[in-house]
Structures are given as C-alpha cells and as structure tokens.
Amino acid sequence: MNILELLLEQNLQGVDLQGVDRIALHADTLARKRLIREVFKEFYDTSIALDRNYFGDVAGRRIELGAGTSFFKKRYSSVISTDVQPAPHLDRVIDAQEMDLEDQSVRTLFCINCFHHFAAPQKFFGEVLRVVKPGGGCVIIDPYFGLLAQVLYKRLFRSESYDPDAPTWSYCVDPVTNEELPNQALSYVVFFRDRTKFTRMFPDLEMVYTAILPNYLRYLLSGGLNFRQVIPSFLAPLLRNVELASSQLTRVLGLHHVVVIRMRSSHSK
Predict the structure, then answer these.
(1) Looking at the predicted structure, is the pLDDT value of residue 269 above 90?
(2) Which CATH topology does 3-263 take?
(3) Which residues pair with 212 in a beta bridge?
(4) For the chain, how far is it from start to end, CA to CA, in angstroms?
(5) Cβ–Cβ under 8 Å, residues 194 and 5
(6) Rounded to whole angstroms, how far apart are CA atoms 89 and 68?
(7) Which residues neighbour 142 within 8 Å (Cβ) at sequence distance 6 or greater?
(8) CB-neighbour burial class of residue 53 (10 A; exposed 0-12, middle 13-18, buried 19+)
C-alpha cells in the first residue's frame, strides 16, 4: 500500500471513484471538511463573476454540467444542476456530449472539474454550438498544467491519467491494465497545446479569458474530495493569505485553471 492509499478517506477505501456510489460519499466529505468547501465556493464565485462579465447581456439558462456532489445551486439558486449520473439533489440528468436541451436555449454552461471526463470533446463543442445562444458560452475549471500539477496529477488517482502529450482529444489507455482513463491534462491539450486546431475546428468558439486559480495550498492540504485533510480548518484564512502573497509562484504551484469560451455573436444555426 502506497502513501496515497494510506491517505485516502476511510469511507472511500475500495470504492470506484468513477462510480455512482462516490456521489453520496463525496457529499459526506464536503459536509465534514470546511477547507475543501471554501475552495469550491471560490470555484462557484469565480464562475458566476466570469458569467456576469462575459455573458451578462445574454438571456437563457445557466447550467452546471457534471455536478456530482456540487453545491453550486445552493449558492446560486438560478443555476440548473445536472450530471450524467442521476442523484436526488440534481435538477436533471444531462450527457454533456448529447444534451437534451433545446437549440440556443442556454446562456452559460459551467464545467467544474468535469471537462477532462468528456471522452469526445468534439461532440461537446458541437453541442455547445447548438444549445448556447450567440454571445453566451462556457466557463471551464479543470486541472492546470504547471510543474506541481504535472507531478501531482500523474500520481494522484489510479482511475484517472495525466498525459499532456496524448495524441488525441480523448481518454488515455493505461499501458498496464489497458483501461481507458480520463486525461486530466485534456484542457491543456485542447486549449493550449492544440489551440490552433481548436480554432480551426470551431471558429465560432473563441477563448476570451484564461487564469490560474490561487487555491493550491488549501486544495492540496484539504485532501480534496478523496484524501484526508492534513491540517486544521481554522488555518484556512492564513493559507489564503499565503497563496495571495506568493501569487508569483502560482504559475508553478497552481493546480486548477479557468478557461472561458464564448460563442461569437455572429453565429447562427
């Protein structure tokens, strides 16, 4: 047993971290751990601020995809909470690659730590072009690709891969088990490494904003949703101040980044 297995939350021992059983267990983790709740609140607040800034003049639904155990809707009641797997707290079941939504009915799609789970992101972008109104778009928060992220994410989960050199926009094949695993580097591959390809394939989708999120200390020391917290929660304000004071290190130590994609106003079906 390696150190990550020793640090795994006790209630997640032996649980399939991609399976539906994880949802209730992750909800229990969020209820117990203030530190990770604070990080998620910042994810939601950042997402809403970017939505208002870039899509504020567009009418339509605001939909969270891949919500899992998210409490986004509790913080912002107008957000429609969805996931590909059903759960009692969700508003709807929606597959991001085949959305059961009307054409041009959506203002914003929020994808928080779910984009790298899309096995065929081309299908997702095709659905974005169909369901999002011109001037609307997507706010995507996903694993970053800095030095710490590259070291950490390659080793963090057996159920997920991290391959910035992946030849395709898809899942990675584990060379040992031959399993297809989500690629946590997918947002880097699509929006940064292959940005020219993305622009060529989807000219009506423009990347209008990117930023590295300064939550790395609190996220790491909280253990996230899967691992045990290693410091007391009352240190959260101190950790936040350290993150802000060392902002010049965020490019190296950052663990998440945000990408905003906007539908060009000239787009029509």
Answers:
(1) no
(2) Rossmann fold (3.40.50)
(3) 257
(4) 54
(5) no
(6) 9
(7) 111, 113, 114, 115, 116, 184, 186, 187, 256, 257, 259
(8) exposed
170-190 tens-digit pLDDT: 999 887 788 899 999 999 999
Model's pTM, two decimal places? 0.92
Tokens standing for 253? 């130590």
Task: Express each pLDDT in 107-144 by its tens digit.
Answer: 999 999 999 999 999 999 999 999 999 999 999 999 99
Separation CA 266–CA 127 (nearest Å): 17
Q: Are 160 and 184 in contact (CB under 8 A)?
A: yes
Strand partners, 64: 81, 110
In the β-sheet with 106-112, what is the strand arrangement from edge to edge?
92-93, 80-83, 61-65, 106-112, 132-143, 256-263, 205-213
Do residues 145 and 131 make contact, with C-beta atoms less than 8 angstroms apart? Answer: no
Which residues pair with residue 81 across a beta bridge? 64
- For the chain, give the percent of residues with pLDDT over 70: 91
CA geometry: angle at 256 spanning 239 and 155, to 5°? 95
3-state secondary structure the chain: CCHHHHHECHHHCCCCCCCCCHHHHHHHHHHHCHHHHHHHHHHHHHHHHHHHHHHCCCCCEEEEECCCCCCHHHHCCCCEEEECCCCCCCCEECECCECCCCCCCEEEEEEECCHHHCCCHHHHHHHHHHHEEEEEEEEEEEECCCHHHHHHHHHHCCCCECCCCCCCCCCEECCCCCCEECECCHHHHHHHHCHHHHHHHCCCEEEEEEEEECCHHHHHHHCCCCECCCCCHHHHHHHHHHHHHCHHHHHHHCCEEEEEEEECCCCCC
Rounded Cα distance, 135 and 130, in Å: 13
Distance of CA 152 to the CA centre of its chain: 16
